[in-house]
């Protein structure tokens, strides 16, 4: 239910409109002039303003323009006398949702229109939220393994090509999807996300495509889908590997033909969106299992980008930890949080099966345990990496040798003799190497 302001200098019209909407459960206020409406709107917060066009003093158009500037999220419906449709159309060009001709004959039409306007208001709020979602994190923290990835993302972003982001859980697929949008010519448009794994099939379908009133039990009003909402912007299909086959067919059609119908509807709706998809599944294997459509795969895998797991870009761990820590400082209001060298070292050597998401969780937990001061090793709970996992591409043999020696010494509690035995070298050789590596 919405908060609605009805503005008309004619008392009769005003109360008829107000009562029609009140019976639906909306909270309706009334204003007898543009001036009064402006005052009220500035004090309270309304979702929808239904206003007459022609009024002495501040008229409907001026009210629309002024409030649009101050509260762009508020929706407008224009009431207009017969023969004044041109003005109403001008109002719509200035952002009004729709117009109703006076005399208003049916309360039903009015209610339906108000319903739709309120729904658009809600959807706008969803888009706003997904846009605001703090500043865009960067992708490049210097790890050589990320360089070609960042380069590919930068190049594909400016095109209209569908991007498929593939990577383990927590590698930053959503962060990368936003980066594609932000670096694209559509950056000023909406970025809409739907996670295909978290909604049931029916719910997902009506979230994506919307539905007409009465399309199924519980569809008491018409609802616009998220795809419509992404018009002019980018649409991020997260966890696309979880989408059911039947829905995949419908999705394929929108991607190919740029048109779709709402659930229970017959009218074709055209959309202009750029598609970005992500999965942590092997979609080829899903095709083999008969769980993913091959034709859809070819549509979305035009430009696949693989995000490397954190253990393959260990150079990123330190700078990423700093970035995450500065977020945690703000979130927990602990400006003095810092990492001790021993804690940093543990982070550097962990397995990170949960990737960046796990890194953030580990830091947050440690921050809480440290009471907001310096985090040390005792507060870092991580699974250490196996030797092969600590090795990243492009390391020299010397670097590997050094890691092997460090590991052996840790495992033997610092006993050089035992460490030498583990490494299969003589004690003298170990001493030489220790001296060389300092
Ligand atoms: N480059 C980055 N800079 C800063 N934070 C990052 C970066 N990459 C990932 N993160 C953070 O790590 C967490 C996981 O990232 P994201 O949600 O993008 O990963 P994902 O691959 O979509 O994971 P999942 O498969 O679990 O949904 C988020 O909290 C995100 O903010
Ligand atoms: Mg994700």
H/I helix tally = 19
Radius of gyration: 29 Å
CATH architecture label name of the largest domain: 3-Layer(aba) Sandwich
Give the oligomeric state of the chains in this entry, treating copies of one chain as homo and distinct chains as hetero.
single chain
Counting helices, strands and paired strands, the structural category is alpha/beta
How far from one another are the termini?
70 Å
Q: List the ligand species.
A: adenosine-5'-triphosphate, magnesium ion
Which term fits the overall shape?
A: elongated
Low-confidence stretches: none
Q: Give the strand order, joined by hyphens, for the main sheet.
A: 2-1-3-4-5
Query: What percent strand?
Result: 5-15%
CATH H-level homologous superfamily name of the largest domain: P-loop containing nucleotide triphosphate hydrolases
What is the CATH first-level class name of the largest domain? Alpha Beta
How much helix is in the residues?
40-55%
